[in-house]
Specification:
Elements: H1 3-16, H2 20-28, E1 32-40, H3 44-51, E2 58-61, H4 68-77, E3 81-88, H5 107-120, E4 126-131, H6 139-152, E5 155-158, H7 167-173, E6 178-180, E7 183-184, H8 191-208, E8 210-215, H9 219-228, E9 238-240, H10 242-263
Parallel strand pairs: 1-2, 1-8, 1-9, 2-3, 3-4, 4-5, 5-6, 7-8
Helix pairs in contact: 3-4, 5-6
Protein name: Divergent polysaccharide deacetylase family protein
Organism: Marinobacterium zhoushanense
InterPro entries: Divergent_DAC, Glyco_hydro/deAcase_b/a-brl
């Protein structure tokens, strides 16, 4: 896609979001679910159990953790999608672990830390935020983050750990393919609570055409998903990796843009 078309499409998204006609077209293709499993890297056994789940799941790997390299490499060998789970400053001042991005860092320090995090997970083709309820509210550090992602050709997923997040908008303004989380599966780790959230995600997918879901490699979550994911087809929902879904969105918007140009009498090259 040319730079002009990218800019126009991003401008369209930033200005008006996804229109009703866009959603209608995506619904014709059937509802989609993007499932992300966060926090891989600290526990090998739980991480490997999560990798064994069926289907095109996206795995968010914490940088510089004891098992991040092994799990990231195993995921790639299995054909699974890997993204960086970038630790970002939170309102509760919870410990972030290695590779943390904080408000105390200068632009140079923050970007150098993020570059090192990405180098530590070379399989990553995108990024989402780990915690980040404080940092994702701040426009300037998020713009610094997006500069690095744009240079590396990565996408971004806003985990929406705060309702005041500006991360998704920052990504779109930077011209970066982006998604935002709709449902957390396992804020409560009981099977009943996870099932309720999963059914909520199914309902959202049916109503709005797609849903982005985040879970964690908890035994309760992995056990439930092992049973639930094979049944997604019965709900008429297709499970997609984040990158595949973003590519589908891009292709749909390109077709709509081409059709709009044709209807307006704009010839190719103009």
């Amino acid at each position: 896609m040319g730079r002009l078309l990218i800019g126009l499409l991003i401008g369209f998204l930033v200005a008006g979001g996804v229109t009703a006609s866009d959603q209608a077209l995506w619904r014709q293709q059937g509802p989609k679910m993007v499932l992300i499993i966060d926090d891989l890297g600290t526990n090998l056994r739980l991480g490997q159990a999560a990798l064994a789940l069926p289907g095109p799941i996206t795995y968010a790997v914490l940088p510089l953790t004891p098992h991040s390299r092994r799990l990231s490499q195993e995921a790639e060998r299995m054909g699974k999608e890997v993204i960086l789970h970038a630790p970002m400053a939170n309102l509760q001042q919870l410990k972030l672990g290695p590779g943390a991005l904080t408000l105390a860092q200068s632009k140079q320090q923050l970007q150098a830390t993020l570059q090192a995090d990405l180098d530590a997970v070379p399989e990553a083709i995108g990024v989402n935020n780990h915690m980040g309820s404080l940092m994702t509210q701040r426009a300037e550090p998020m713009a610094w983050v997006m500069e690095v992602l744009r240079e590396r050709g990565l996408f971004f997923i806003d985990s929406r750990t705060t309702a005041q997040t500006r991360a998704y908008a920052s990504a779109l303004h930077a011209g970066i393919p982006a998604l935002e989380r709709d449902v957390f599966l396992d804020n409560e780790r009981s099977t009943a609570a996870i099932e309720a959230q999963f059914l909520r995600a199914v309902d959202l997918a049916r109503r709005q055409g797609s849903v982005v879901v985040i879970g964690h490699p908890y035994p309760e979550t992995v056990g439930f998903l092992a049973q639930a994911l094979p049944a997604l087809g019965e709900y008429g929902i297709t499970l997609m990796s984040a990158s595949a879904y973003l590519a589908e969105q891009r292709d749909t918007l390109q077709r709509q843009w081409a059709r709009a140009r044709a209807e307006a009498g704009v010839t190719p090259g103009q």
